[in-house]
Write a structure and sequence with these properties.
Number of helices: 10
Strand content: under 5%
Order of helices and strands: HHHHHHHHHH
Structural class: mainly alpha
Distance between the termini: 53 Å
Number of strands: 0
Radius of gyration: 21 Å
Length: about 290
């Protein structure tokens, strides 16, 4: 459940912060007339993400067992690729996310209502689709026959919305770089488990060989139905009897990915980001001077 809670919190907070930055910028610059198109774009993005997730869940139930395993395994790998790209991208751009979004919003304001809707839809929609796919893959991998995995995701999303609201109200200051580094590292560990489970699905679909070649079997020591077995499965997608291919893929993904992710970032912000940051600071100063006057 913790792994799914982390996914809901991490992905949900990204989307919440994007929404807060967009709304706060429009309010601060006196462009409340542009709020409606922004909310329309956000609503459409959320609807598309929910429809995508529902399509994955209910559409796969109509398939044969082997087709389900092939689809589940393939989408699990795609989800891991997307999430890996996302955590690296967010770690690099977290410090400058506000300036990036402000630049896109300024351009959209000049183009009109349709551009505002599209900006909000693209900013939130990408997070929504990634979240829906990875949540579906993670729940499928850690499902224990209960609603605990889904409950973990929902609790994470609710926590993210609450933190986003506090962030918007100014009651919470978040060091985004540190937050996304720590949660990103933990998410890489969760993604490694989802990847291993996806490989197992492909083996059960007979797309990959080696289903009978077990790396080890400690089911007697850590029974899958025990509380600690359930805990390990919920947090790390742990399997007591993985195949050799599963363990190999898990190690080959986790070790280099985590090492690269935790390596220091040497590059600074781009010139465009620096320019936008200076523009934002100037606008803040002018707004404060106007309020004082």
């Amino acid at each position: 459940m913790f792994g799914n809670y982390l996914i809901g919190l991490r992905e949900g907070l990204e989307a919440s912060l994007v929404v807060c930055i967009l709304i706060a910028y429009l309010v601060k610059t006196g462009r409340r007339d542009a709020l409606k198109p922004i909310w329309i774009g956000i609503g459409v993005a959320v609807g598309v993400a929910l429809a995508f997730g529902a399509g994955l869940e209910f559409g796969s139930q109509e398939l044969t067992f082997e087709a389900q395993e092939l689809l589940g395994g393939s989408l699990s790998i795609v989800a891991v690729v997307l999430v890996t790209w996302m955590v690296f991208w967010m770690r690099r751009t977290a410090r400058h996310l506000k300036a990036e979004l402000h630049g896109k919003l300024d351009a959209a304001l000049q183009m009109g209502t349709g551009a505002l809707v599209a900006t909000a839809f693209l900013a939130v929609g990408r997070e929504g689709l990634e979240t829906a796919l990875f949540v579906w893959a993670s729940i499928r991998a850690s499902s224990d026959g209960t609603f605990a995995p889904l409950a973990g995701v929902l609790l994470g999303l609710l926590t993210a919305v609450f933190l986003g609201w506090l962030f918007y109200r100014g009651a919470l200051r978040i060091n985004l770089a540190k937050f996304f580094t720590w949660t990103g590292g933990m998410l890489v560990v969760v993604a490694a488990g989802v990847l291993a489970y996806g490989v197992h699905d492909l083996q059960e679909a007979r797309f990959l060989v080696g289903l009978a070649d077990k790396a080890f079997d400690i089911s007697a020591t850590i029974p899958p139905d025990s509380w600690y077995g359930t805990l390990l499965k919920g947090v790390f997608n742990f399997q007591p009897n993985p195949t050799v291919l599963q363990v190999t893929v898990w190690v080959l993904y986790l070790v280099p990915t985590l090492a690269l992710f935790l390596a220091p970032i040497g590059s600074g912000p781009s010139t465009r980001v620096k320019k936008q940051k200076a523009t934002d600071e100037k606008a803040d100063a002018e707004a404060s001077a106007g309020t004082t006057a």
